[in-house]
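Task 17 of the worksheet. Students: predict the tertiary structure of the chain below and write it out as structure tokens. Keep your answer in the requested format; marks are given for formatting as well as content.
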Amino acid sequence: MGAGKTTFVRGAARGLGFAGPVTSPTFTIGRRYEGGRLAISHLDLHRLAGLEDEDPALLDDYLTPDAVAFVEWPAIAEPQLPRIRARVRLEHAGGDARRITTIMVAPT
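Model answer:
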């Protein structure tokens, strides 16, 4: 919590050409941003205990082939995330510092 996930996504969105506001999707599950070089989806699955009791199409509007998706707390949705390209871990490193670890995943 508070490690800078939305700030990370905001920076990535700027890098992808999106100039509008980027806010946390904590209370809405997801947000979609259009207007950059490609669509951006930002999901926060922290509040979900699992996907079994959710609408099967809950993530469909966000996980589309034309978008890059940033998924916070992705573990419960792993089976529905077939195209993972990178995992990024953000950790507090004291004060305002953060440690960022990126693991690239081979395309499937």
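Marker's comment: The beta strands are 30-33, 39-44, 67-72, 86-92, 98-104. The CA atoms of residues 70 and 90 lie 13 Å apart.
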